[in-house]
Backbone:
């Protein structure tokens, strides 16, 4: 076993001292992500390294493989499951400084990037080519593309555009032993390929457990020229859900359908007072994008459907108003705490996904779970695909409230399984949800483990995630 | 942690959910890309200190002093974490438990509390520039061999050969025409010593807008002390300044320096327990403090003179004015009211320039990286003149333009307004 001080010296020798973070104080800032559990424990990495090219990563992996040292890849650390936290110590790879766009292949509608580039930054660059990368996480301003691939993230526009995996054409991966592999074809620029077993798909959502993703080839789309947002408010959750189903039944697929419950509406108003959302049991935000004619037509159709049940309907095409509405929804994750003075929103049990038809029941039962444990739970999320975000609002300095929040999270995860949903729609498993994996997957989890062991026989890649340690 | 600066660390720190939104906004993090340099990272370290898991140390201090206090993270934080205030509070604590650098102590407690001594010491700086020593050191590159902070200071400091404002502005300046307001002009240290023309223009423009202007003998506002955690000294200066300004029987206290107005209007209240005499005085003073552009736009209305200035102008928002006091429309209104001004909004006008008082000297390389983005935005605006309302921003931007070989001038908005009149330059 390598001594920690030797590990630091060796990393400095391999990469140069400027790419190595070793002081205990600085390493502390790599012990957390947004997950509440990571903040209750101190998972110190032994060293943090900041590779800036594939060769750096290869050197690190060869060393780690030889010396049996755990390696945890990390992007912005904005995840909510502890996925980028080194629960077994070892080396954290901070990839967030490696932000290059290697190539924008405009004519073939694809882009090649390094893992650290931030989602919003990529889309700013792409927009000057009339292109965009559609998945739209609420954490767009900080989430890295590498992290999005690792977690198969999606976000507010998944209802029309799907998740990250649908856009990943190929990957460069440094394997646990330091070898480099390319998925999706060594020289391919094809937008479709069924050549061989789909290893790209295997790596998307593998949460850093199978290797280090060092380059990503993404399919991108023409940026829709026009968008509009329909804000609707409902006095009952059932009416909101019924409206969503009716929109779909009319053959319309909005680019996003987002919901805030009553406390989410309050939080949005507190964060952005000029939003001025009236009180209601639920607010829905429909985003329609495409050509002007399509947006006008579909916007009008959705508006007419919503007017049957909604108490307030507002169709916005003014960029400033749309920006505020969308931003108000996007940041609600962190802004939820504003509904209760002296309280904080915590991220646990926050990403369950329900079958569409069971969303109203799920929302009611989540409120019951909150009441049972005397915990305020703000609900918001992507009602268009059933992916709900639940935010326990507690005082983290009060142990009894912390304990109650853990029970709330457990009940919500169990509810997702009971209602034939999933414990996570887009945030991933990390170590915060690994305890539910057997119940969710059964035999399939064993097969996942066999694949993991085949690729990473020494178990050095992001140990302690997805599977409960044997 | 017990501090003079009024902040409840436990309550403020628990608001941070570690979402990382601040990584998107912090000018320092956007250069370093390392978590310890992010607002979230710094807050995590303060929480360790608050929880008693670490002790104050030089390394901790260095990390926490790596913050510009630009407030960008705070105003964009979904959870409402006031990171900059937490940094000010923890620096106050660190100042009490760690040995302060002797030079900082000398500057904060010696020079900045004694205006006469400060002015006298500045004569040495003038002498240094007048003898041509600065040019010799720069041309021969010997300047690079000075201690880092000295060489940075020597590079950034502009020509200071002009006479100080305090010697040039009469104690009382009568209004042109009927008196509408009696105003105290708070003459900040940097304006007085480095940009005296700004104050000369400011006072004259106020007089032309119907103000009787007095320029009381005040001490430094205390912003440098706040930034370096020396609240003990700042409390004494605040008491003195409040006494002087509140006894002056004025309708308003006006200043051309955004850091001074932010300190007088916001920070003084945080130095005293609510309910105390001093707290009430700070509140009273706060209600009278105005940024110069804000006062001219909102209180007197802009009355430009007849001479057009015919120049393309862009505006840089000082952090303490835009995010600290929500003043950003008024300087633009003022500029647009000036005949002949062709106003061009630059990209990221409110992004910090990296100056942050003495940050550009103490963390010179990092500050220059932050400045580079600002300079490229200025260049893209194609404006010939950059207006801003802060003397240290003026210094930083002037240095940036010069070092990037960009022709351009940096001025206070009121200096352009003053050009529309036949300005009085007090002899």
Residues:
């Amino acid at each position: 076993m390598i001594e920690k001080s030797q590990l630091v010296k060796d990393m400095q020798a391999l990469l140069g001292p400027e790419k190595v973070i070793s002081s205990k104080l600085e390493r502390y800032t790599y012990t957390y992500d947004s997950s509440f559990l990571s903040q209750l424990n101190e998972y110190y990495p032994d060293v943090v390294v900041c590779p800036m090219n594939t060769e750096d990563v290869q050197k690190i992996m060869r060393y780690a493989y030889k010396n049996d040292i755990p390696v945890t890849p990390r992007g912005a650390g904005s995840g909510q499951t502890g996925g980028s936290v080194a629960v077994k110590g070892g080396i954290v790879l901070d990839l967030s400084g490696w932000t290059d766009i290697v190539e924008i292949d405009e004519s073939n509608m694809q882009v090649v990037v390094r893992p650290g580039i931030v989602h919003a930054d990529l889309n700013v660059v792409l927009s000057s080519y009339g292109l965009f990368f559609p998945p739209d996480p609420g954490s767009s301003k900080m989430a890295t593309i590498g992290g999005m691939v690792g977690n198969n993230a999606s976000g507010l526009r998944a209802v029309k555009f799907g998740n990250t995996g649908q856009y990943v054409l190929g990957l460069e991966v440094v394997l646990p032993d330091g070898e480099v592999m390319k998925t999706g074809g060594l020289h391919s620029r094809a937008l479709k390929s069924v050549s061989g077993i789909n290893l790209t798909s295997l790596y998307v959502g593998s949460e850093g457990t199978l290797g280090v993703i060092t380059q990503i080839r993404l399919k991108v789309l023409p940026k829709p020229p026009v968008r509009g947002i329909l804000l609707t408010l409902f006095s009952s959750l059932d009416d909101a859900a019924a409206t969503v189903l009716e929109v779909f039944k009319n053959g319309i697929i909005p680019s996003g359908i987002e919901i805030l419950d009553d406390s989410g509406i309050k939080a949005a108003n507190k964060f952005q007072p000029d939003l001025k959302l009236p009180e209601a049991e639920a607010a829905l935000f429909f985003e329609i994008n495409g050509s002007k004619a399509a947006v006008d037509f579909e916007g009008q159709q959705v508006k007419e459907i919503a007017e049957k049940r909604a108490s307030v309907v507002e169709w916005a095409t003014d960029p400033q108003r749309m920006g505020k509405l969308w931003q108000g929804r996007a940041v609600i994750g962190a802004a939820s705490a504003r509904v209760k003075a002296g309280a904080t929103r915590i991220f646990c049990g926050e990403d369950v996904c329900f079958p569409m038809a069971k969303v109203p029941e799920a929302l009611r039962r989540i409120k019951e779970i909150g009441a049972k444990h005397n915990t305020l739970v703000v609900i918001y999320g992507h009602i268009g695909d059933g992916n709900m975000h639940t935010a326990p609002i507690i005082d983290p300095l009060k142990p009894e409230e912390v304990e109650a929040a853990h029970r709330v999270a457990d009940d919500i995860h169990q509810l997702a399984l009971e209602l034939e949903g999933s414990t996570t729609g887009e945030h991933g498993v990390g170590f915060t949800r690994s305890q539910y994996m057997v119940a969710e997957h059964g035999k399939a989890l064993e097969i996942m483990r066999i694949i993991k062991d085949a690729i990473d026989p020494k178990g050095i890649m992001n140990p302690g995630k997805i599977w409960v340690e044997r | 942690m017990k501090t003079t600066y009024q902040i409840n660390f436990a309550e403020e720190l628990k608001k941070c959910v570690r979402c990382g939104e601040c990584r998107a906004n912090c000018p320092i993090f956007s250069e370093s890309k390392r978590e310890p340099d992010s607002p979230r990272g710094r807050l995590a370290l303060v929480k360790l200190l608050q929880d008693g898991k670490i002790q104050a140390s030089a390394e901790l201090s260095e990390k926490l002093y790596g913050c510009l206090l630009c407030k960008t993270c705070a105003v964009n934080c979904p959870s409402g974490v006031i990171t900059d205030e937490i940094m000010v509070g923890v620096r106050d604590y660190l100042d009490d438990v760690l040995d302060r650098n002797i030079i900082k102590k000398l500057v904060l407690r010696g020079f900045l509390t004694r205006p006469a001594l400060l002015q006298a010491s500045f004569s040495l700086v003038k002498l240094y520039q007048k003898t041509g020593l600065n040019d010799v050191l720069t041309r021969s590159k010997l300047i690079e061999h000075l201690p880092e902070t000295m060489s940075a200071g020597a590079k950034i400091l502009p020509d200071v050969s002009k006479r100080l404002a305090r010697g040039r502005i009469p104690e009382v300046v009568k209004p042109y025409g009927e008196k509408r307001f009696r105003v105290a002009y708070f003459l900040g240290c940097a304006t007085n010593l480095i940009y005296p023309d700004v104050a000369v223009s400011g006072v004259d423009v106020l007089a032309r807008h119907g103000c009787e202007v007095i320029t009381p003998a005040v001490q430094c506002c205390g912003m440098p002390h706040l930034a370096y955690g020396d609240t003990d000294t700042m409390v004494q200066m605040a008491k003195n300044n409040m006494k002087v300004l509140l006894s002056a029987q004025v309708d308003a206290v006006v200043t051309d320096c955004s850091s001074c107005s932010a300190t007088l209007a916001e920070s003084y209240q945080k130095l005293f327990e609510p309910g105390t005499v001093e707290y009430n005085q700070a509140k009273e003073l706060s209600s009278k403090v105005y940024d110069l552009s804000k006062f001219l736009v909102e209180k007197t209305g802009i009355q430009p003179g007849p001479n057009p200035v015919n120049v393309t102008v862009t505006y840089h928002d000082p952090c303490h004015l835009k995010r600290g006091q929500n003043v950003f429309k008024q300087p633009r209104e003022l500029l647009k009211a000036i005949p002949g001004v062709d106003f061009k909004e630059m990209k990221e006008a409110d992004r910090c320039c990296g100056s942050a008082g003495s940050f550009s000297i103490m963390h010179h390389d990092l500050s220059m990286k932050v400045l580079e983005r600002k300079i490229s935005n200025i260049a893209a605006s194609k404006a010939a003149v950059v207006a801003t309302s802060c003397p240290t921003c003026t210094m930083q931007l002037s240095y940036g333009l010069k070092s990037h070989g960009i022709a351009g001038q940096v001025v206070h908005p009121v200096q352009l307004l003053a050009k529309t009149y036949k300005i009085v330059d007090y002899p």
User: Anything to note?
Assistant: Chain A has a mean pLDDT of 95. The two ends of chain A are 21 Å apart (CA to CA). The longest strand of chain A covers residues 226-234.
